[in-house]
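Hey everyone, long-time lurker, first post.

I ran two proteins through the pipeline my lab uses and got sequence/structure pairs for each. Pasting them in order. The first:
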Amino acid sequence: MMIVILSAAKNLAPEGQMLRLRLSMTTPQIACDRALGYLANFYQTREGPPEGYNEAIQQIHIIGSDETIVALNQFNDHIVDAFLELIPQKDEINLLEERGNLVTGRLQGTEKSIQEIEKSLEEFKKIFDEKIKLTYELAGKCQEKTQLAEELLTPVIFAIRKELNAAFDEEAYRAMMKISHNKWKGNVAKYIASMEDRYKQGMRILLKDANMSELGTGTNGDLGHTEQ
């Protein structure tokens, strides 16, 4: 497909060739930006990786300059290594989620003694504490690896813009990244709050048929000791 596009581009006027080149070079940059966003939010997302990333990398290898290819390879190597490290911890968090659902699910619709409910409460709180601890750790790692990926993406963008004879305002780009970091911190806080809500919902299920007062969070309402 790419060979057909390049062959067709040769028959275009110079203006048309430049437009085709701009489109071909912009697509990989967009793919890298999406990969960066996916990495930043990997601690909470349930979606699969963005489509078209590998194809975009291959596209640059066909049409990019040596400078662009070297910069892109460094970025891509970091992205691959990052997910190889992060995926096992994300799997562990998902497993804890399933264990918590099993604890609440096995009590629904059945008569349980106070002792059984207390045991389930303790198990559920223990699962929640471990899950929120690992989530904070994973979010911190995602942020760390995203910041390094941003540094590695900067020369990629610079090289692509250079090939297109387009200006690149690095200062403005870094200012935009700073705004993104601040927004990311707010998103982490919102996600942790949603975890708290799911915890309270699970507690209500466990306490529904028992004559017991609802307990606080597994961390006694204090999550400061787990923050990055």
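...and the second, right after it:
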Amino acid sequence: MAILPIGSVPNRPAGNQPRAIADILGDFDHVTNYIDNILLPNIGTGDAGYQDVLQQGVISGGVVTRDSSSQVTTALGTGWVTLSSGTLRRISWVGTVTGAIPVGVINGRVDQIVVDLNGTVTRLQGTNAAGLIANLDDANAMASRAALPAQTFRLWEFVVDNTGVVATVGTKFRDRRPWAKGADSYADQPGSVTIPAAVTALDVAATQRRVEIGSTRIRITIQGVMVLTGPGVRAFVYPYINGVAQNNTQHLQNHYSSAQGDFAASGGRDYTVTPGSQLISLGGSGGSGVTASISAYSIKVEELLTPASNNGLV
């Protein structure tokens, strides 16, 4: 009787014998190579392939909180990080407590919480500011902020004063998490707010959102019910971007004619922006006192196009 190779099955033709594990693993490598190098780069409609639907950034988690005067805690999370080869790696990180870093500064500095390709969370120390830091957008803060290392992205940034205390106010303690699947922020408010005659930011507390944009194009969609209760009234609703009213691109509008009425509508527009942190809120004008309002309103921000490398930031 012939002696079959180890792992062979009696009474089965040679061509149908079980395959060696090494062969199976070789096929597995072939499949993963196909997915990474052929399939994924061709998903999507643009030249950038899968970058149209996936990008570096946070999938979930990663919120940073200040839990003592000089210490912050980063919540666990998952995301995608861009490697030096240009490919994306899925990473996860655990909840991390980051203590104080020696001050050694006079005017304060900007520290950042970053995560790298291994899921390691680090507090990246800034340099001493040339002058007192009023907020994270001023020139002193910009100069103090350290450059991001390769193959990392930031989760948060905050001002540390000359005693080592981490700031608590929103202008000095900011969420900088980029979105892995493109920016998608939604603010919903079931109540009602009056639309005045002058160009005005509406219900800032409920609708204002700071979003981290990696590309140069965003789409803002506004929904709501516009209520008009007097003759000759015309009202408009539009977004604010970084404090500037986009009132030349009305999203919703309603005009009272012969009878008071409610007008439910949805409108969206695309905008060109600079990659980075954008402040988005709701605005309106054209009404007169209590004769115009909007209720059950919402504002949604979506990111378009391929994001810039490292979210376009240093």
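Reply from user beta_strand_b:
Welcome! Quick read of the second one: Residues 244 and 280 are 9 Å apart (CA to CA). The helical segments are 21-39, 139-144, 204-207.
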